[in-house]
């Protein structure tokens, strides 16, 4: 009997110095796909994915730029997705974190090759000339991955103060397991970085990230709707779980609403990855969560979500370390 899996797609920041060469060294090369995406990149005057992936060394000023990082992550994840043995595993649903939503659309069949590239490349290039705001990340759990409600309240109260006193603008961007990602303008984020209590390396700002999933991107959403036509979208072939925890089923999906969510709410409102994975667990009861690469940067966040849900006896960080192979798979 096939094992049931929910596929989890990574977001921005997952292609790093440690994953340089991810595509080149992949156990299942996708030559036709790479020829296609390299040709598309070349035709718009961008370096090919092969060139970026096979670079001598990782360059943050190049590899983390939206117009390059988005397509690199897409190509890396595509290789992992295609390597899933369909004779052994049945894909019950697909979800993702932030940009991972675009990958989920592609892998579910809601976008074809051309539409997926257009969406991912266009959204990744929206701030090619100037990045709007930024993101910082901060933990809201303790060392054993238990909720720290006092710390969470401190973050939310400080954020409310920034907006109320017009110090700047800061909003919740992503609920990421045991972390909260904040998006805002420069003055707002600087205030948060200065005033949030230090917790190890946190808080820190994510390199080349904009204020994704916040009202600062209203205009970006409007531009996206003008650049991406609805006819790129179709009903998914497997269920999708979005950044609110809403399930889009193959037969009942309203394609117009899927399009509007993707280029509207998903762009300028908080992305709740925690809810997305929680819904995946409770509604689809998978044997495994299958985390696509590059890398496994979401592993900790997923572990924290499992702890929050007390999933299969995983009640703390140590439990996850001991049992992670029983629920979490990577390619």
What does this entry look like structurally?
- This protein is of the alpha/beta class and 331 residues long.
- The protein has two domains: 3-129 and 217-330, 3-Layer(aba) Sandwich (Malonyl-Coenzyme A Acyl Carrier Protein, domain 2); 134-209, Alpha-Beta Plaits (2-Layer Sandwich).
- It has 14 helices and eleven strands.
- It has helices at 31-43, 49-53, 60-63, 66-82, 100-108, 113-124, 149-164, 186-195, 218-227, 255-263, 265-268, 273-284, 299-308, 317-323, and strands spanning 3-9, 89-96, 134-139, 170-176, 179-184, 204-205, 240-241, 247-248, 271-272, 288-291, 328-330.
- A hairpin with a 2-residue loop joins β4 (170-176) and β5 (179-184).
- α4 packs antiparallel against α6 (113-124) and α7 packs antiparallel against α8 (186-195).
- The radius of gyration is 19 Å and the shape is globular.
- The model has no long low-confidence stretch (mean pLDDT 96).
């Amino acid at each position: 009997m096939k094992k049931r899996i929910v596929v989890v797609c990574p977001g921005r920041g997952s292609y790093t110095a440690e994953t340089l060469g991810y595509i080149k060294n992949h156990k299942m090369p996708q030559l036709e796909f790479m020829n296609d995406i390299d040709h598309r990149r070349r035709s718009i005057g961008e370096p090919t994915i092969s060139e970026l992936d096979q670079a001598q060394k990782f360059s943050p000023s190049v590899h983390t730029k939206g117009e390059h990082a988005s397509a690199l992550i897409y190509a890396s994840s595509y290789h992992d997705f295609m390597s899933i043995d369909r004779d052994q595993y049945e894909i019950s649903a697909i979800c993702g974190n932030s940009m991972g939503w675009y990958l989920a659309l592609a892998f579910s069949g809601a976008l074809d090759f051309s539409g997926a590239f257009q969406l991912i490349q266009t959204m990744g290039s929206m701030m090619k000339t100037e990045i709007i705001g930024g993101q910082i990340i901060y933990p809201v759990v303790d060392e054993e991955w238990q909720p720290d409600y006092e710390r969470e309240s401190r973050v939310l109260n400080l954020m409310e103060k920034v907006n109320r006193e017009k110090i700047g603008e800061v909003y919740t961007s992503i609920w990421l397991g045991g972390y909260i990602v904040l998006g805002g303008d420069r003055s707002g984020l600087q205030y948060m970085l200065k005033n949030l209590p230090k917790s190890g390396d946190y808080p820190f700002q994510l390199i080349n990230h904009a204020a994704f999933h916040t009202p600062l991107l209203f205009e970006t959403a409007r531009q996206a709707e003008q650049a991406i036509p609805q006819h790129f979208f179709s009903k998914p072939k497997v269920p999708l779980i979005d950044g609110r925890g809403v399930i889009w089923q193959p037969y009942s999906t309203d394609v117009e609403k899927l399009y509007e969510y993707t280029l509207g709410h998903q762009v300028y409102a908080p992305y709740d990855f925690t809810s997305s994975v929680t819904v995946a667990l409770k509604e689809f009861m998978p044997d495994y969560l299958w985390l696509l690469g590059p890398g496994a940067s979401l592993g900790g966040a997923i572990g924290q979500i499992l702890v929050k849900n007390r999933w299969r006896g995983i009640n703390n960080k140590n439990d996850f370390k001991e049992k992670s192979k029983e629920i979490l798979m990577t390619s």
